[in-house]
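User: Study the shape:
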Amino acid sequence: MPKKKTTKSKGARSKKPKASKPKRRGTARRTKPKKTARARKPAKKTTATAPARTRLRAVAQKQKTARGNAAVDERALRARALAFHRVLADQGVYSAVVSEDEFLAKVGPTILETATSVAKGQENGSLELLALPVTLLYTIKDWVPTIEWDYEFGLDSLFEDLGPMFEKAGSSFTWKRVEGDRDRYEYTLDGQALAIEPSDPVEIDFRDFAVIVKEIEGVLAPKAKKIFQPVTGDQSGRLLVIPTSSEAALREILIAGDDPRAEEFY
């Protein structure tokens, strides 16, 4: 009997510690540190690091998108500018011989400036693309018979600018103002005498302007030339002397006042 008790108690004492103690220690060591680490690390990333990284990524993406939009807009503007150049060259609107390289060198800064403004959201991309040809007329004014005018500047300013414009178009233009109770303007185009008594002594009356353009076109018609008036989008206007045969091709790219697309300028 003592032997049985001794054997049994030894066996029970030896089995229980070996089976239970490692199990409890092993479980405690494996779970507690890992649970604590997993709970703390994500919390630090979520509250401090993640938002900062998100903002940096957003800024970087915005800058990348802006650069991409600028590049796309510049390519589109350049293509439209070249199309305009080809029409001017092919249709004989230029008053001088202008190569494609010369044209691009001249209008390059305007295209880049426009593309940058569009990319920054300062200008409407579709409108800038549509209006580019009339914008470029100012840039290439040394090569085409064109002027910019304004009702507020009066007839003196208009007639002063008409002379250089017609000279580039191969015509001669002179004018003078005859003062009196009501001033009278006398002008000649290619030797043909014309005159007008303006309704307004200071600003140009739009009806007077229409009369002047009609009389000028009457003189230009036998020479197969006419006046083209592209839309500018503001109170200033622009005149361009063109070969009559070029009007259809020019209207495709340079928007005139009676074009449905002109509404987009206002």
Summary: The two ends are 116 Å apart (CA to CA).
